[in-house]
Design goal:
- By secondary structure, the chain is an alpha/beta fold.
- It has 2 domains: 240 residues, Aspartate Aminotransferase, domain 2 (3-Layer(aba) Sandwich), CATH 3.40.640.10; 133 residues, Alpha-Beta Complex (Aspartate Aminotransferase, domain 1).
- Helices cover 38% and strands 13% of the residues.
- The protein has a 7-stranded mixed β-sheet, sandwiched between helices.
- This is Aminotransferase.
Length: 408
């Protein structure tokens, strides 16, 4: 009998799956997209008599999903971030606080407005350092908070600090769509929440995003910014026309609308999202259990108030020499397991450090550098079975242990 590679002995085990293969678009989404293609009205404002656009329906449904009063569907998560900053009237030269541990579109959105990112440190729990934030709050009037890789900080304390300082909060929820803190959906704590539907996020339209808020004037500005051409009455999750009268002549058009084709793909996925979150977390817990107790490896303990979405998992090789970490990466890669490392001096794929973005000034942050140097990151696509997840954790455990033991 031929032995399957995924059930071979431990020394020979190798993972043969893909870390970038997503599940197919639901059949209902494919059918809805084909209908849009057949009638040809892809532009969100190109509607037939009596027709409500797919994009407008999606906005209404996403607002209901998050509990927000208003929602704007846009071309990307990065566009949503920039739109939120503009809606809050961030100006060139303004300082905007943000995480030192994040991805390039976050400081990029700030710098694109001519504003200046001010980086805040990260803790061993991979969340923003609230003590460092408290010290830096007087420098800015806006915080762009990144829930990086799905880790949510103590939002009650953060909002208390920011409210006392008069700092408005934009939440970057690219990795926390569907997550909650103490029962409040991610994106609903601050002034505005921004989400992504890029392929590797929790809903897949290739590119796309949302912006949500309860503030009617911010919502009206966001609709105008997105490129409504005064067709704001075709939105279902927007404020009334009297609000647009206050902003329509003074808000620039920075076009970044979502189209009906992507909205058609997303609407069925939104209905499936709660079940998908359960599936991600099931996979996360299998990998987490398999890695627990690995010598030299620190797991990130998830706090009780956080309902996370485990579409990726992180662990720390704290205080390891960079060459030892590189050896772990190479050994795991040789067995089919792709780990990303945020400790490299040069950006690779999506990994970046705050000092990688040379368009943004930064001071040395030794405590943060120690954390960044140790972060390992791995995607958990839903195309992985639970057996796959167990296999992957065995491989990582074996290779980390081997390098750790040899180092003494």
């Amino acid at each position: 009998m031929t032995e399957h590679p995924k059930t071979a002995t431990l020394t020979a085990e190798r993972f043969t799956g893909s870390f970038t293969q997503q599940e197919p678009i639901p059949e209902a989404g494919i059918a809805a997209a084909l209908e849009v293609l057949r009638h040809g009205r892809l532009h969100r404002y190109n509607t037939a008599a009596g027709e409500i656009a797919e994009t407008a329906l999606l906005e209404q449904e996403f607002a209901a999903f998050t509990g927000a009063r208003y929602c704007v569907a846009v071309a990307s998560g990065g566009y949503a971030l920039g739109c939120a900053l503009r809606a809050l009237e961030v100006q060139p030269g303004d300082k905007v606080l943000t995480n030192a541990f994040t991805l390039a579109p976050v400081p990029g959105a700030i710098a694109a407005l001519g504003a200046v990112p001010v980086f805040v440190g990260v803790t061993e729990d991979l969340v923003i350092d609230l003590d460092d934030l408290a010290a830096k709050l007087p420098q800015a009037r806006v915080l762009m908070l990144s829930h990086m890789r799905g880790h949510i900080c103590d939002m009650d304390r953060l909002m208390t600090l920011c409210d006392a300082a008069g700092v408005r909060v934009i939440e970057d929820c690219a990795h926390t769509m569907g997550a909650t803190w103490n029962g409040t959906p991610s994106g609903r704590h601050g002034a505005m929440g921004c989400y992504s539907t890029q392929t590797y996020k929790h809903m897949n339209s290739g590119e796309g995003g949302f912006l949500v808020t309860d503030d009617e004037e911010l919502a009206a500005r966001a609709v105008m910014l997105s490129g409504s051409y005064m067709l704001y009455e075709r939105h279902l999750a927007a404020p009334g026309p009297e609000v647009f009268e206050r902003v329509k002549y003074v808000t620039p058009n920075v076009s970044g609308r979502m189209d009906n084709l992507r909205a058609a793909l997303l609407r069925p996925q939104l209905g499936d999202l709660p079940a998908q979150i359960d599936r991600w977390n099931e996979r996360y817990r299998v990998v987490e259990a398999g890695l627990r107790g690995t010598p030299g490896l620190t797991l990130i303990e998830r706090p009780a108030p956080e309902r996370f979405v485990g579409s990726s998992i992180q662990a720390l090789l704290l205080d390891w020499a960079p060459e030892a970490i590189r050896e772990v990466l190479a050994r795991c890669a040789a067995r089919g397991v792709e780990l990303k490392w945020f400790g490299g001096r040069e950006p690779v794929a999506f990994t970046s450090r705050y000092d990688s973005w040379r368009y943004a000034p930064s001071e040395p942050m030794p405590a943060t550098d120690r954390i960044l140097t140790g972060i390992l990151d791995m995607r958990l696509p839903l195309t992985f079975s639970l057996d796959d997840c167990a296999l992957i954790s065995r491989i990582i455990r074996a290779e980390v242990s081997a390098v750790y033991q040899r180092a003494g």
